[in-house]
Amino acid sequence: MNATIELAPSIDVRRAADRFVSDFGWLDSKHSFSFGQHFDRANTHHGLLLVNNDDVVDAGTGFDTHPHRDMEIVTWVLDGSLVHQDSTGHNGVIYPGLAQRMSAGTGILHSEKNDSWTLGGPEHRQPVHFVQMWVLPDESGIVPGYEQLEIAPERLAGQLVPVASGMAAHRDETAIRIRNRYAALHAARLQPGESVELPDAPYLHLFVPRGAVTLEGAGPLATGDAVRFTATGGQRVTATEAAEILVWEMHAGVAA
DSSP assignment of 34-79, as one string? Predict the structure, then answer.
């Protein structure tokens, strides 16, 4: 992890159609960075963000139990519900507005499935749509952990708010805690004409999981588009239709 290197300012727009795609029938997954069988040496991360997966999982299906290690994994559901179970004994249903963090640490097993109706609710056929993001922790070998927290919808309306953070600046805010003091995830839900100002940081990653916005100085962004900022920030993002945005603020990057 490197927080001191000199960076050249840049704004790198990545279009939705340029993402890697994994289609397994039950899963439609679009990857902003190298993931699984998709590898591009020039596209492995931005700042501390290694994974930004935009996933749609059919009802009654999902990811069987699998391992993770030394990673902070944040999940943000857009539509539907996702059932989580892990080897530390945590389980529950994640839904829109409920932020989830899993610290893999020394090792954790978990499953994620769109099968909430098997837990006692009425059967449904609604897919679950969520974004899963991975950032590196401050240190390896930590004790695995889990946290989930409901973010009130009025907080997200028309403003950018931290929903997951390890930064001291957000210590008193309502957000899940990730184990990296250099990183924070912000979210906003915008109606047409509403705008927010991006943070200023060495690294920013803006993702538009739904809707459409205009980025000051770069133009229109549609659903699935992303922007990687280096050594710049403060631009305004304005919704041109109802939209949701996710912004990673990162004050360090992966060491070369």
Answer: -BTTB--TT-S-BTTEEEEEEEEE-TTEEEEEEEE-S-EEEEEEEE
- The whole domain housing 137 covers 10-250
Amino acid in the structure at residue 41: R
Residue (of 61, 245, 224) closest to 163 by Cα position: 245
Q: Tokens representing 154?
A: 């009025």
Residue 102's domain is classified under what CATH number? Answer: 2.60.120.10
The least confident of 27-41, 81-95, 164-178, 236-250 is 81-95
Instruction: Enter the tokens of residue 18.
Output: 């340029």
Q: What share of the chain is helix, strand, coil (3-state, %, to 5)?
A: 5, 55, 40
**What's the CA gap between 94 and 87, in Å, rounded?**
17
pLDDT at position 104: 93
d(CA 98, CA 151): 6
Are 106 and 142 spatial neighbours (Cβ–Cβ below 8 Å)?
Answer: yes
> Distance between CA 43 and CA 141 in Å, rounded?
26
The token duo for 32 is: 């902003």
In the chain, the number of structural domains is 1
The C-alpha atoms of residue 116 and residue 92 are separated, in whole angstroms, by 9
pTM of the model: 0.94
CA 236 – CA 146 distance, rounded (Å): 33
pLDDT category, 116, cuts 50, 70, 90?
low
Sheet holding 236-239, edge to edge: 195-197, 236-239, 213-215, 219-221
For the chain, give the mean pLDDT.
92
> Average pLDDT for residues 205-226, to the nearest whole number?
98
